[in-house]
Each structure stands twice: as structure tokens, then as C-alpha cells.
Amino acid sequence: MKILFTGGGSGGHIYPIISIVREIRRIYPKKDLEFCYVGPREEFSSILLAQEDFVIKTIVSGKVRRYFAWENFVDILFKIPFGILQSFVYILMTQPDLVFSKGGSGSIAVTISARILRIPVFLHESDIVPGLSNQVTAKWAKKTFISFPKTEYFDPEKTTLVGNPIRKEIMEGSKDRAVELFNLTLSKPVFLIIGGSQGAEAINDFVIRIINDLLERYEIIHVTGTQNVREISAEAQVMEEKILDKYYHPIGFLDEDKMKHAYRAADFIVSRAGSGSIFEIAAVGKPSILVPLPSAAGNHQSKNAYAYAQTGAAIVIEQENLTPNFFMENIQLLFLHPEKLEEMRQSALAFAKPLSARAIAREILEYLMLD
């Protein structure tokens, strides 16, 4: 049996795919399953998928922008049709039993080809606001899985609410290991601050502005982005008081192993509001402040954040409102009321859906076995 996965190529698409495949292997350990991936060329994603024994095929990927841009003409007239042709040939040659799409601009060529060749398509949408690719694919998908209730554009009667698949391993961190990895003192509450691959600059700059106020009260693990870590570390050394240096731990990127330990050690998390981040934060039961990426397509990060915050698990601060006084007041008020932090932890755990990947894996296997 062959299952072909597709997505936009970003971590938000790739990590859920990996989590689903791991669960399929746990449920069905036989060796007669082959996993393929077709999507846009992206080195980081290819490395992650290769580690999970995927057969990987890259295609030309185009994007339909919802505003005027000359690039639309090139993408619509050339890139997307060529990507469909590439996908069609590959699917015709490999004959997968099922195509699973995580959406994104790289997926639409694959799902259109699957439809032409009558290959069943399963679809998962991470955000409250589906991307254009998923809106189109949902019209013929056999099954559509969603992360949030009241996901826009989709017919509720044709969707299954499962949450966003996360890797089970993320919940298996160790505080002692975190102390070793990040040289933590644990003498103050630990903040984990994550800028995200697209939106790290604004959060990085903000952290540097308030670095001394933060470090007087908290210990910081700051995920800066790989390209920013040297610059941010140098700026912090200039700005921070020498005596506080031992409480600041900048790092460019957290791989799966480091991330799970950072999650375990953190008392509080500041993050962007991608669906993957929200569901991981919920699964590890951490109170958080979410700062939505203003440029996110369809304003989906803001809508994700407010939907999550309605549960009581998080506070949302829009980037334009991210000022030192407002931020520090919110943080200090929370830490003056430990019972509020505990309520946020419990609300996060109540929202979490740690079995999402397993639920999707079961649906895939049941469909293949009955087909």
C-alpha cells in the first residue's frame, strides 16, 4: 500500500505529516506500507521527511495571491500548470492508494492530479481560515479534518474535528535535561520565547528592548531564528546588565529533542499563533501570550489566537500593541496571581487534542483496509 502526502513545505505542514506517519507505523507495524511526499523544494522539509523514510519528489510550485501582483501571471499561466503535469506523471507512475493533503500552495497541483486520476484525497486544515488550496480541494475530498470548531468556508456536516496533529514525542521532555541543554539556573520562572520562522524579527527586537526588565524577574530561553542568533546575542550582551547574563539563553532553532525539553522546563510561553504552536503549547499545558503574525494570510494567526484565548488558556497581544509597559503589566499581574496561571494551565490541557494524529492515522488505515 502507498500513501502519498503533500503540503506547502513549511514546518506547519511537515510536522503534522510526520506525526501522522509515526502513528500509522505504531498502529500498523507491517512493512507493506510505503510513504511518499510530493511538494515544493524546501531543504529543511526534505531533511525531516528523509529521516522518516519518505520517498520524496519535488515539483514546481505556484501561488495565487489574493491581490494584484505580476507574479500571479507567471504562477497561474506557467508554474501551477507545470506542477500539475509533474504531479500527474508521478502519481500515474506510483499509483498511490490515497493522497493526504495538508494544504499550502504546493499541494493544489497534487490534489488536482489525484482527482483526475480518481485517487481518493483526505484533507487536513490547521487554521480557522483555510488557505485557497484547501478551500478548492475540500470540494472533492473524501474526508476533511479540521483543527478548530467553526472553521470558515467548510461545511460542518462534511468535516471531522480532530485538532492539529502534533508529535507525541513533544510531550516527553525532561526538566533535568533542559537544565543541561540550556544551562538553566531555575532560580526564577522560565520563559520560552519563540519568534517563529517568519515573524522572529519583531519579537526579537522587542525582547532586546525589555531585556533587563525581563531578566530581573525571569529566566529566558529565546528562540531567535537561525539567521538571527549571533546578532541578537551580541545586542543582548550590549544591552543587558552583566549580573543578569546567566539568565538569558538565546538559541537559533530548537529541533525536536531540544524543543520537548524546553517545553517541559518553561513556566510560561510567548509565541506566534500558528496552529502547530498553539496545539503544542496546549498539549504541554503551559500558559501563554500569543502575538499573531500580522502578515499571515487571511489573518489566520489572529483568528487562531482569539479562538484559543476564549478558552482561558492564553492572552492575545497584537503586535501593534506589544509595548514594554503593556506586556510587563500583563505578565506581572499573572505571576502575582498563581491561581490564574493554574487556571490557564488547566484550560490549555482541556483544549489540547494530543491524540489527533492517532485519530487521523486510524481513519486512513480503516479506509485503506475497507477499500
Backbone shape: globular
Distance between the termini: 11 Å
Report the order of strands and helices. Answer: EHEHEHEHEHEEHEHHEHEHEHEHEHHH
Helix content: 40-55%
Radius of gyration: 21 Å
CATH class designation of the largest domain = Alpha Beta
Largest beta-sheet characterization: 7 strands, parallel
Report strand %.
15-25%
Q: Provide the spatial order of strands within the biggest beta sheet.
A: 3-2-1-4-5-6-7
CATH architecture of the largest domain: 3-Layer(aba) Sandwich
Per CATH, what is the topology of the largest domain?
A: Rossmann fold
Assign the structural class, choosing from mainly alpha, mainly beta, alpha/beta, alpha+beta, or little secondary structure: alpha/beta
The CATH superfamily of the largest domain is known as Glycogen Phosphorylase B
Number of strands: 13
Mean pLDDT: 91
User: pLDDT under 50 segments (min length 5)?
Assistant: none
Question: What is the tally of helical segments?
Answer: 15
How many structurally independent domains? 2
Question: What would your notes on this structure say?
Answer:
This protein has helices at residues 11-27, 43-51, 71-94, 108-116, 132-137, 175-182, 200-209, 211-217, 229-239, 256-265, 275-283, 300-309, 324-336, 338-351, 356-370; strands at 2-6, 34-40, 55-59, 98-101, 121-125, 143-146, 159-161, 190-194, 219-223, 248-251, 268-271, 288-290, 314-316. The model has no long low-confidence stretch (mean pLDDT 91). It is globular. The protein is of the alpha/beta class. The strands form two sheets. Strands 3-2-1-4-5-6-7 form a seven-stranded parallel sheet, with helices on both faces. The chain starts with a strand and ends with a helix. It folds into two domains: 2-166 and 354-370, Glycogen Phosphorylase B (Rossmann fold, 3-Layer(aba) Sandwich), CATH 3.40.50.2000; 169-351, Glycogen Phosphorylase B (Rossmann fold, 3-Layer(aba) Sandwich).
